Amino acid sequence: MPVSNRPRAAARRVLRAKLIFNAKSGRPEESSQQLADILAEMQSRQIWPEVFTVHPDSRVEAVVRSAIKAGVKLIVVAGGDGTVDSVAGAMVGSSATLGIIPTGTRNNLAFNLGIPTPIADAVALLRDGRRLRIDAGRIQSGRAGRWFLEGAALGLLTDLYPAADNIQHGNLAQVGEFLSTLVSATPSHLRMILDGRKRLETTAHMVLVANMPFLGARIQISQQVSFKDGRLDVFVFSDMSKLNLISYVLQSIGGAVPDVGIEHYRVKHLKIFSAPQMPVMADGLLVGQGPVTALIHPRALRVMAGTALTGTPVASPVAVRQGVPGG
Length: 327
Description:
With about 325 residues, this protein is α+β, with helices and mostly antiparallel strands. The protein has helices spanning about 30-45, 60-70, 80-90, 110, 120-130, 155-170, 175-185, 240-255, and strands at about 15-20, 45-55, 75-80, 95-100, 130-140, 145-150, 150-155, 190-195, 200-210, 215, 220, 230-240, 265, 270-275, 280, 285-290, 290-305, 320.
């Protein structure tokens, strides 16, 4: 008679958790069954969750902080990247650990962390996964600030994002808006201060500040980006035509990393002044417009990840410049 490899539930202590469940993520019509499956899988592994269901007016950050204050050590998010981001922002610097059950549309954060989409496999990682402490970015534009895990964007990419997001969700009527925005875009003059000392001036359509190698619709910005190196990777798209920009995005979606002479810097702290002022977005949400300050908080978030990380940097011959030589 075959013997199951699953550890016996009775041999494990009960693990208390807070489950943040977003019924609107992914396919809402499947949410009831998803929640039932999640609870069944958790029970089988002796994880006892207190469930909070996200609503449009929910103050998710306050719910998470309250759970941490009450002594909960595992905060589990069942939802998409937006839900994970809102929870993670409230957990930065705490002793609680973030668990992810990807039920959204893109699930890019889970992809970077090697977390599978089947519910049973994702729940299993809450017990048997790889416990990591990863970097978190913080961006400030005027009085508005936001934590980010994937990355931040300035300029053309921020302008294109709303239409591109709608197109990806099946609204092809937004193609015209996307093309109109692209055609009318003009570059900005940038003044950048890297790690407080190195100063650069250039003209560019956009700047990407990455903490993970795959952003948005799993576009691979660079194979060298890491969420465990205590640095932000800054990509300045200088002297590139709009056609080259489109070509870069298409090749990145295909998994290749095109060599088009993009300036790449690795920094702990960054200031950007732009004219005309560039709009600023972090992890898909608009932050503001104007001067930008971005910095990295090393090992600031505890997460449960897969044993094989998708977002693992590889050696590359492409030169990377530190914000400060030797920094």
